[in-house]
Amino acid sequence: MEEYIRRILTLGRKRLEKFALKGGKPLPERPLIVKLMEEIRGFLGSGENRVILLYGLRGVGKTTMLAQLYLKLIGEVSGERILYASVDEIKMLGYRLKDVFESYEHIIGERLEELREPTIFLLDEVHYDEEWDLALKVAYDRARNLMIVATGSSAIELKLSTDLARRAKRFHITPLTFTEYLLLKGIRVNEEVKKVLKRLLLAGEVEGIEEEIRKTFLTFDPIEVERYLLYGSLPLALSSREPLEETYSIVERIIRWDLAKMGFSQEVLEKAFLLMLMLASGEALNYDRLTSRLGISRPVLAKLLSAFENLEVIFPVRAYGSLGKAIRKTPKYKFLAPVIRTSILNHFGLLEVNEKILGNLLEDVVALYLYIIARELSGSVTYDAEKGGADFILTTPIGRIVLEVGWGKKGKEQVKRTMKKIGAERGIIIHGGDFREKNGVIWLPKEWFLLML
Q1: Residues near 224 by Cβ (< 8 Å), separated by ≥ 6?
Q2: How are the residues of the chain apportioned to helix, strand and coil, as percentages rounded to the nearest 5?
Q3: How far is CA 280 from the centre of its chain?
Q4: Minimal CA–CA distance to 384: which of 306, 312, 329?
Q5: Which residues, 6+ apart, have CB-to-CB distance to 61 below 8 Å?
Q6: Three-state DSSP state, 182
Q7: CATH node for 2-173
Q8: Which of 21-35, 249-263, 306-320 has the lowest mean pLDDT?
Q9: H helices of 174-265, where?
Q10: What is the spatial distance between Cα 368 and Cα 342, in angstroms, rounded to a whole number?
């Protein structure tokens, strides 16, 4: 193990350049990198122990972020004081996360309690070690002058111990929003435009916004909207020649590795691929149809769907109303990264770029945006399960907003019906037409909505 640690200390830069550079040039950075560097510089200035956890769906760019942090720090921190280690690789070699800390102590000749200089551990995919949270807690408690930045799957939050939760600062890494996608392509959207559009959604403020937003549209080619929906919701879209094939490889790893680790049998894992295809097709599905087509029991189906939810592959939009109603009705399952839907359809030869698929992808993105907003505001995202009901209901501490989504132009009937039913004062129609407002209903061009986050 010590030989392995010596090697990654020596070759860290070489190993990580492939994640952070393309053609010798640095890849664009997501906004979170600025916050993370602030945290690290705060540690370097104070020497106070810190633990940061970055968690999210496979493929959202967590490893790239660690690589970018490493390359920024390599000039500020001596080589032996910054270590990048991939825990899945360590596990494959037959070692544990605690062995990394012990071997490092032997190599530098200092125990964690005695670290003389600020030391940074960048630990990738920590969830591959079943006792990762204990290993991080023990290292944190023993050390002085140590900062740990660790990445893991979305499910690590569910297994986070109370002790480590008190010590760690957590950052949730979501799939790319449209403005992040543009930023990674070198196009920056004015922050004020995003704030104005968010106020429009949450508070219905519509005065004086059109001119500034129209100026924003001049900064990018309109085709970028379709590109984003089809394959731009994960960062690999900007570095891969075959983003749909690479994304499907992520789906395979989720099923073959992540679900397998959760204890699913090989037979159920094979059914998981068919389940993903059924959800990607966009057809209306219920539990009975799913269990019949898959040939599995309802408890196994529920466990499988819950696992995909915990890994943030899908997002269940549950029925609005009582808990009993939400349980009885099958949720509408959306893909938080729309490119997962297109990658699955593409793999099975079923991807046709038409209004139907673009509409499904737009609904995925709306679900992603509402998911982010609901987490920020301690709210919830549901749908009206009655016939002719609206696609989404966003409930926040300041009220309820009814939303309907369509690729082309949309009427107000569904929104008004649900607004009346639940007593909402405002409805939003996200569509392919113009911006207008009438009697508490706002018709919002889909491009406007995409610029909100």
Answers
A1: 181, 182, 185, 232
A2: 55, 15, 30
A3: 18
A4: 329
A5: 30, 173, 234, 235
A6: helix
A7: 3.40.50.300
A8: 21-35
A9: 178-184, 191-203, 210-217, 223-231, 243-253, 260-261
A10: 16
Report the distance separating Cα 357 and Cα 339, nearest Å.
Answer: 11
Q: Rounded CA gap, 107 and 147, in Å?
A: 18
* Radius of gyration, alpha carbons of the chain: 23
What would the pLDDT profile of 101-127 be if each residue is shown by its tens digit? 999 999 989 999 999 999 999 999 998
Cβ–Cβ < 8 Å for 250, 56: no
Domain boundaries, the chain: 2-173, 179-450
The DSSP symbol for 435 reads -
CA distance 330 to 284: 10
Q: What pLDDT score does 410 carry? A: 81
Buried b (16+ CB within 10 A) or exposed e, 297-315: eeebbeebbebbbbbbbbb
* CA 272 to centroid of chain Cα atoms: 21
pLDDT at 15: 86
Look-up of token digits 């409930």:
395
Alpha carbons 126 and 133: distance in angstroms, whole number: 8
In the predicted structure, residue 14 carries a pLDDT above the cut 90 = no
What's the pTM?
0.90
Three-state SS sequence of 271-324: HHHHHHHHHHCCCCCCHHHHHHHHCCCHHHHHHHHHHHHHCCCEEEEEECCCHH
Question: CB-based burial of residue 404 (10 Å sphere; 0-12 exposed, 13-18 middle, 19+ buried)?
Answer: buried
Tell me, what amino acid is at 62?
Answer: K
Q: Which residues contact 179 (CB under 8 A, 6 or more apart)?
A: 189, 194, 450, 451, 453
When mean pLDDT is compared across 65-79, 158-172, 345-359, the lowest value belongs to 158-172
